[in-house]
Amino acid sequence: MSIIADLILAGGKVVSPDAVIEASVAIKDGKILAVGAADAMPPARETVDVSGMHVLPGAIDVHVHFRDPGYPQKEDFASGTAAAAFGGVTTVFDMPNTIPTVGTAEALAAKHKMASEKAHVDYGLYAVLGEDTIENVPALIEGGVIGFKLYMGNTFGKIASPSTGAMLEAFEVVAPSGKRISLHAETNSIMERRETRLRQAGRTDPLAHLASRPAVVAIEAVSRAAILAEWTGARIHILHISSADELRPLREAKARGVDITGETCPHYLMLSADDYARFASVIRVNPPVREARNQEPLWAALADGTVDIIATDHAPHSREEKTRNDMFDVDCGFPGVETQMPLMLTAVNAGRMTIMDYVALSAAKPAKIWGLYPRKGVIAPGAEADIAVVDLAREMRLDDAGLQSRAKITPFHGRKVKGLPVHALVRGRFVMRDRTLVEGTRGHGRSVHTIQEMPAPAPRNTDQTMESITRVPARQQESTA
Ligand code: NCD
Ligand code: ZN
Q1: Got the DSSP string for 266-284?
Q2: Does the CB atom of residue 171 touch ligand 1 within 6 A?
Q3: In this structure, are residues 262 and 237 in contact, taking their beta carbons and an 8 Å threshold?
Q4: 332 CB under 6 A from ligand 1?
Q5: What is the residue with the minimal CA distance to atom 11 of ligand 1?
Q6: Has residue 426 got a pLDDT over 90?
Q7: Residue 213: nearest ligand to its CA?
């Protein structure tokens, strides 16, 4: 009895972190059945010729804001995941700064229901770890989260940053679960003070945003977070690394054995303070796009592994919200989930990194860091068939009007790219084909928390946690009885 595959992608170049091989890929029941020579493939219901193209594991973008529920004028889960599909991104982790914020089991359950009905690609949901949600951690884990998000500083959504004391307790509570805590690592009190002074001085120009958040804001936050992670054994991830200077505390923490990972985004690699003049308030993002001298060290950190992955911080806002006169009134962020792959493939074409490096940074490593590997992040037999078929020779000029995202305004508008995702498959099904969204794929996406398998947790100093020290000793219990 012979097996019949559902689909064969024939004649492409299959990319993994350490090899590019000429091979066909057979898919059955949403999984990779075989990778090998064309004449070794089983019979299939459908064969798609992808010769001349590269076949990549779909990107896993661990940092997107799809705004659902709460801000339909910016994005919703359908438009956001459609944008992902166009960008060759087959799994996204969505942030909790929605209305309501995802800080209770009820809000999480409602978001799971909404996401399962609208998603074109797979997803994980973050829950917020704040001063008032620490007690909800067990219920949130039970309800299915990919990880936690902690805001050390104010950003869009104005989620209050916990005190260092609350942060330590939050780390203690999450550590035994092994879940990773992703940090917006900017220290609030520094930024707040500087913004007040800048406003008083009448500075509301675009560069005032950068002046309010110098790199020391991030250096201090990364260092402090690393100390708390080291003490508690909690796993942490530094979101949107923007400066050369925060690489030192990150490297030092890694050297000490702290389970700390980091991401950077295309805008920190490819934009600089020189672009504020041209893009004005559109470029406002937290942390800010910084002086050009930060770019080379960030590229180098990707190459040497200090920065583990590429994410986008896809942060859509409407044109009106992005183009106000007072820089401090402008909403922070811009869409990125669909431009990341073209931008990074352009860098591959320019010789910045190999395409193998790129799939490590965009797919394999994020899958490993969040316990999804080898179900996701790799094209190998048994893995879920999440695939981006890309044409490295295809050129395009990025154009805001052509974005799938509802937010049609970015500082990458007008930029020439070379290297485009042509098809995207999620668990064997085309969701984007020939640069067109495939009808009927809304609701195909599902939560990946069900397949997440984190390594055994390693909590530390457990005899000194808030929980331990507030437990009434047995002797005292007797005397009060
Ligand atoms: C993000 C948003 O708009 O939700 N904005 C941003 O500038 N990055 C929030 C965030 O990730 O900080
Ligand atoms: Zn952030």
Answers
A1: HHHHH--GGGHHHHGGGG-
A2: no
A3: yes
A4: yes
A5: 313
A6: yes
A7: 1
| pLDDT number for residue 1 | 60
Structure token pair of residue 226: 């690393």
Could you tell me which of 403, 417, 410 has the C-alpha nearest to residue 283? 410
Q: Are 292 and 273 in contact (CB under 8 A)?
A: yes
Beta-carbon contacts of 30 under 8 Å, excluding residues fewer than 6 positions away, are 384, 385, 427, 428, 429
Tell me the per-residue pLDDT of 384-419, one tens digit each, with 9 for 90 and over. 999 999 999 999 999 999 999 999 999 999 999 999
What percentage of residues in the chain have a pLDDT greater than 90? 96
Second CATH level (architecture) for the domain 58-376+394-414+446-451: Alpha-Beta Barrel (3.20)
Helix pair angle (247-255, 216-232), 10° resolution: 20
φ, ψ of residue 308 in degrees (nearest 5): -80, -35
Mean pLDDT of 273-284: 97
CATH numeric code, 7-49: 2.30.40.10
Pairing of strands 31-36, 19-28: antiparallel
65 lines ligand 1 (CB under 6 A): yes
| Cβ-contact 62, 370 below 8 angstroms | yes
Helix, strand and coil in the chain, % to nearest 5: 35, 25, 40
Query: What is the pLDDT at residue 481?
Result: 55
CA-angle at 57, arms to 413 and 333, nearest 5°: 30
Residue carrying structure tokens 């402008």: 330
Check pLDDT > 90 for residue 123.
Answer: yes
For residue 268, the model assigns a pLDDT of 99
**How high is the pLDDT of residue 479?**
67
Q: Give residue limits of the domains in the chain.
A: 7-49, 58-376+394-414+446-451
Ligand 1 atom closest to 63 (CA): 11
- In sign, the C-alpha dihedral spanning 344, 345, 348, 350 is negative
